[in-house]
């Protein structure tokens, strides 16, 4: 078979296997690196013999180098710099002091337990210094932990990669020179590579950022490709100046470009993220396919003990030393940091290249060191990756325990939501571009920021980093969706919800499955209408406890009928002191407390007599129309009216159109539970017919009235003597 065809098929198989592993991992909610390793080993020479990476020769080194540069750049581009100040001291210690701790601890364990020579043992220690964003980032997406923990893990994985890789190159130089290199040359070689890479990366990243912000000749279709070409160009230039300096260049360029606040940054990050997934998938499959299982099994028990010491002794010691001066991290967070340190693609790729170089120089131990590094990767990924969710729950460092809410929209509904969260002891911050609405919120004792919710600085100022809920409730459904999606992508809070128009919410199921943004509340009446109800004081704020057994089913059916009629808007559900915004498909468990708005229209005269009073605070109360459940009757087949003021008329007992109208009963206004209601003061002059009885039952069952004239007409009429 033609060599070109064979190489092409090798690449195709690697791509299919890599993407397949990503799909399986995403479906099973397991780190994809687990399946990348399995698929690569199965397709390798020792099992199925389909993939043979050695056929690429020197081309494999080129593929690895360019892919690693892209991976490190993407890590720097996605690193959230704004959260680093909270853990900056600990992060600095991990990249500097922590590197030395892992180097020395890993080297001593490999020598004394793994029985490796000192030179090869310290080479192993330098290779396992790095953790890697290719493993940490997917893990943090699946296991949402508290913000300081996530920032520290992600920052360490990005910044320590080039440092560890350059350190490994320096150690390899010492080995290749038979230890003739003096310590000063070792330190200077490390610092020179870091200095060249950092300087070139900063300059190149700034130039790329300026060209993207001020360009007049680049189309949107070319911007991402220009950045890709620029990064590889900077990487190649740094490698030309000093070997392995390009790794630091890639990371720093990504950090500087992220800090430049370039326009349309999200498409660039999405594009680079997709390329990184492809590169990681292909690399892991090919490198694991090249792994010799015989060399892996030949390591013996000493290798297992070496990895165990690295995981259970060196890593906890590293975290304890590096976070000693950080009083903001509690012992639970430090324990979780001690457990999570999976190794990734940088360790695998550098170890594979070093094995080739050592073999070419005739130095024994190349295959063994590669096997030990892969054993470390397999052990840390399987043990730490698969147990991370359980450990986070055990140590109670999950982000789902976060409290507080950020509400976009200072309209009456948004202010009410913020107040309800605040009354439960949680922080609540409102964001709106309407200065007058923000002032009204401040008058009500709420914290409001008059700015755009699309600004990351504003969201950070609002406390989205530590908030448990983010919800957008502006009157514009499109704005709500965009703002919520942006918040989910940039900050990833535990609960992201948006209020959509009723027609858009009905078609949002498919989009929600592909997005973290959920639809808030159950609305049959437009948001503008409920805001008007709140402004006009046409609502009451009610609560009810979800009952048990058969009563629960009747209660939920009754509440849903009121929702469908537009009489009730469920807001929040509280269970075990946790407050959550209601979602369409939410299952209200027995014992939960439901808070809702009840539409309680009042006549215009009562509003005039009340003098407006729009600032009167709604008080949570028990509403009998919701609390009292209708008795089940055979006549329940009568359909509820589609609108609150419509009459429910039985088709079998319909009153003929020629029948005389019943006399309108007189009404008087009374106050009950702080809300004005209407009571009948005299009965109708005609006897109640069966049809009217049926009509009254239907109206009571659905929370509507079936009187021939509205209460407003009965009171607001100028001829009514009781108006005074």
Short structural summary:
The chain is α/β, with parallel strands linked by helices and 724 residues long.
Itemize the secondary structure elements and their pairings:
Layout: H1 3-28, H2 32-43, H3 58-78, H4 88-95, H5 97-112, H6 118-127, H7 133-142, H8 147-176, H9 183-214, H10 220-241, H11 246-259, H12 265-289, H13 293-297, H14 301-322, H15 331-339, H16 345-360, H17 366-395, E1 405-408, H18 412-423, E2 428-432, H19 435-443, E3 447-450, H20 456-461, E4 469-472, H21 477-490, E5 495-498, H22 502-506, H23 509-513, E6 518-519, H24 527-535, E7 539-545, H25 549-564, E8 568-575, E9 578-581, E10 593-599, H26 604-609, H27 624-627, E11 667-672, E12 675-680, H28 690-701, H29 711-716
Parallel strand pairs: 1-2, 1-4, 2-3, 4-5, 5-6
Antiparallel strand pairs: 7-10, 8-9, 8-10, 11-12
Helix pairs in contact: 1-2, 1-12, 2-12, 3-10, 3-11, 3-12, 3-16, 4-8, 4-14, 5-6, 5-14, 6-8, 6-17, 7-8, 8-9, 8-16, 9-10, 9-11, 10-11, 10-12, 12-16, 14-15, 14-17, 15-17, 16-17
* Proportion of helical residues: 55-70%
Low-confidence stretches: 611-615, 643-724
Q: State the CATH architecture of the largest domain.
A: Up-down Bundle
- Strands ordered across the widest β-sheet: 3-2-1-4-5-6
Could you tell me the CATH topology label of the largest domain.
Answer: Na+/H+ antiporter like fold
Q: Largest sheet at a glance?
A: 6 strands, parallel
Strand content: 5-15%
Mean pLDDT: 81
What's the CATH class of the largest domain, please?
Mainly Alpha
| Distance separating the two termini | 102 Å
Shape: elongated
Briefly note the structural class of the backbone: alpha/beta
Radius of gyration: 33 Å
Please report the number of helical segments. Answer: 29
The overall strand count is: 12
How many structural units, i.e. domains? 3
């Amino acid at each position: 078979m033609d060599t070109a065809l064979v190489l092409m098929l090798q690449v195709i198989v690697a791509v299919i296997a890599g993407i397949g592993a990503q799909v399986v991992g995403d479906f099973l909610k397991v780190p994809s690196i687990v399946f990348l390793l399995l698929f690569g080993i199965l397709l390798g020479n020792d099992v199925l013999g389909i993939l043979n990476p050695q056929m690429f020769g020197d081309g494999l080194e080129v593929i690895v180098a360019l892919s690693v540069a892209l991976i490190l750049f993407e890590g720097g581009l996605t690193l959230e710099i704004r959260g680093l100040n909270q853990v900056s001291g600990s992060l600095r210690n991990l990249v500097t002091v922590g590197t030395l701790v892992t180097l020395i601890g890993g080297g001593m364990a490999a020598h004394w337990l793994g029985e490796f020579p000192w030179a090869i043992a310290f080479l192993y220690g330098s290779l396992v210094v790095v953790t890697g964003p290719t493993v940490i980032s997917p893990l943090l997406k699946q296991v949402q932990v508290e913000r300081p923990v996530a920032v520290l893990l992600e920052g360490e994985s990005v910044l320590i990669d080039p440092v560890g890789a350059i350190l490994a190159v320096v150690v390899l130089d010492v080995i290749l020179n038979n230890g003739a290199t003096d310590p000063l040359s070792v330190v200077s070689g490390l610092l020179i590579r870091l200095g060249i890479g950092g300087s070139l990366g900063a300059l190149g990243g700034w130039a790329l950022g300026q060209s993207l912000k001020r360009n007049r000749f680049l189309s949107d279709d070319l911007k991402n490709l220009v950045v890709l070409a620029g990064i590889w160009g900077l990487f190649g230039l740094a490698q030309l100046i000093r070997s392995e300096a390009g790794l630091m260049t890639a990371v720093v360029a990504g950090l500087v470009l992220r800090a430049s606040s370039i326009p349309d940054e999200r498409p660039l990050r999405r594009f680079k993220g997709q390329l990184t997934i492809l590169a990681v998938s292909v690399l892991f499959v090919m490198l694991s396919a090249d792994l010799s299982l015989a060399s892996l099994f030949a390591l013996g028990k000493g290798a297992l003990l070496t990895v165990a010491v690295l995981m259970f002794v060196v890593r906890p010691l590293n975290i304890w030393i590096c976070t000693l001066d950080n009083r903001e991290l509690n012992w639970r967070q430090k324990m979780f940091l001690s457990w999570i340190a999976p190794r990734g693609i940088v360790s695998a790729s550098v170890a594979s290249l070093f094995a080739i170089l050592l073999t070419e120089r005739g130095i024994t131990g190349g295959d063994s060191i590669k096997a030990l590094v892969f054993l470390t990767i397999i052990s840390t990924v399987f043990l730490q990756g698969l147990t991370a969710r359980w450990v986070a729950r055990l140590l109670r460092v999950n982000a789902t325990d976060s409290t507080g809410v950020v509400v976009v929209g200072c309209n009456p509904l948004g202010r009410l939501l913020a107040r309800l969260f605040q009354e439960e002891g949680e922080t609540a911050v409102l964001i709106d571009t309407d200065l007058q609405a923000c002032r009204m919120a401040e008058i009500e004792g709420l914290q409001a920021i008059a700015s755009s919710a699309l600004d990351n600085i504003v969201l950070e100022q609002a406390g989205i980093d530590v908030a448990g809920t983010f919800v957008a409730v502006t009157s514009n459904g499109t704005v709500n969706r965009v703002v919520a999606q942006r918040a989910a992508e940039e900050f990833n809070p535990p609960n992201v919800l948006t209020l959509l128009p009723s027609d858009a919410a009905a078609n949002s199921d498919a989009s929600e499955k592909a997005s973290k943004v959920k639809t808030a509340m159950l609305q049959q009446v437009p948001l503008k209408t409920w805001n008007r109800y709140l402004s006009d004081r046409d609502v009451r704020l009610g609560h009810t406890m979800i009952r048990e057994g058969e009563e629960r089913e009747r209660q939920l059916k009754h509440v849903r009928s009121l929702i469908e009629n537009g009489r009730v808007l469920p807001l929040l559900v509280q269970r075990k002191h946790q407050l959550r915004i209601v979602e369409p498909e939410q299952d209200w468990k027995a014992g939960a407390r439901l808070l809702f708005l009840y539409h309680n229209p009042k006549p215009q005269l009562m509003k005039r007599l009340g003098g407006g009073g729009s600032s009167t605070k709604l008080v949570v109360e028990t509403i009998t129309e919701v609390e009292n459940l209708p008795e089940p009757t055979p006549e329940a087949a009568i359909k509820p009216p589609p609108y609150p003021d419509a009459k429910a008329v039985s088709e079998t007992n319909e009153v003929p159109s020629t029948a005389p109208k019943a006399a309108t009963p007189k009404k008087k206004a009374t106050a009950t539970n702080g809300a004005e209601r209407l009571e009948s003061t005299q009965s109708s002059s005609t006897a109640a017919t069966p049809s009217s009885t049926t009509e009254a039952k239907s109206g009571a069952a659905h929370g509507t009235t079936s009187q021939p004239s509205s209460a407003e007409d009965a009171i607001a009429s100028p001829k009514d003597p009781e108006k005074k």
